[in-house]
Backbone:
């Protein structure tokens, strides 16, 4: 696996927090502090190619259940793909290293796709799921093309244009107007993202499976969180997942767009702890 860095705080039932794209584990600061103080062990890794994780691409070896990976450094000229399955196996390997048998897997946006993949490949290690600002269907052809174009843009020009283009989609108007600290933190995460790692993840998201087919088979408790003003993954996407999952609860957060955990951390944390107390104790 890649050489991942992570936060590991608290003790108790494990909760793994998987960040969105193109962010890093620092987006979970409020949740790490809150959950670790409430009797949970919180693990927040930098996913492959992001944050302090060494930017690497993987070549899968079909070597049985262990899913061996060969890793090679990413270069800006590469057209590598980091799949959601790669990231899910990295999470499982980190849990092995930390001697964590099972956990609640919480993912936002891209992290939600990784959570779906983890639950599919490692159902016995998935105690519960939290899916925030994500969706089950795969990309259509237009969306795949848009991801390919953004990947090329990042490799050619860096992350500045991505930050400028996406901030108003990621954050609600109230956040943009009244919370400059969150605006600055989100922008800084985008700007420090490695273009090669981000491009590889874009290609991986474009190639992801249709998780809609997984929904009937997911029997663990699921919390679905969505921002009322999220234009990237709107409430309708969350409602579709809610209808397809037999054991799910839907939480819509007002005055929030895509980054619900950062825009409305108190509301997000309350929803999370209420779910965990019933789903994992």
Residues:
């Amino acid at each position: 696996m890649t050489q991942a860095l992570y936060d590991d705080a608290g003790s108790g039932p494990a909760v793994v927090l998987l960040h969105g794209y193109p962010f890093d584990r620092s987006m979970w600061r409020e949740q790490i502090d809150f959950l670790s103080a409430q009797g949970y062990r919180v693990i927040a890794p930098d996913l492959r190619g992001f944050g302090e994780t060494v930017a690497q691409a993987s070549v899968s070896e079909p070597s049985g259940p262990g899913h061996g990976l060969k890793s090679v450094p990413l270069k800006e000229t590469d057209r590598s793909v980091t799949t959601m399955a790669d990231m899910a196996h990295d999470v499982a390997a980190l849990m092995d290293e930390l001697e964590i048998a099972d956990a609640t897997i919480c993912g936002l946006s891209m992290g939600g796709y990784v959570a779906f993949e983890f639950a599919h490949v490692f159902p016995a290690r998935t105690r519960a799921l939290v899916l925030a600002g994500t969706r089950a269907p795969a990309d259509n052809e237009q969306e795949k093309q848009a991801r390919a174009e953004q990947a090329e843009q990042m490799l050619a020009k860096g992350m500045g244009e991505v930050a400028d283009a996406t901030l108003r989609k990621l954050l609600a108007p109230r956040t943009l107007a009244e919370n400059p600290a969150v605006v600055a933190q989100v922008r800084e995460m985008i700007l420090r993202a490695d273009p090669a790692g981000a491009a590889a993840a874009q290609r991986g998201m474009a190639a992801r499976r249709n998780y809609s087919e997984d929904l009937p088979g997911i029997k663990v408790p699921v919390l679905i969180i969505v921002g009322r003003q999220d234009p990237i993954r709107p409430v309708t996407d969350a409602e579709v997942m809610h209808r397809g999952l037999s054991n799910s609860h839907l939480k819509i957060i007002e005055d929030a767009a895509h980054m619900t955990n950062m825009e409305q951390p108190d509301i997000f944390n309350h929803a999370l702890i209420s779910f965990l107390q019933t789903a994992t104790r």
Notes: DSSP finds eleven helices and nine strands in the chain. The longest strand covers residues 126-132. The beta strands are 6-9, 14-18, 41-45, 56-61, 68-73, 103-108, 126-132, 222-227, 248-253. The first helix runs from residue 29 to 37.
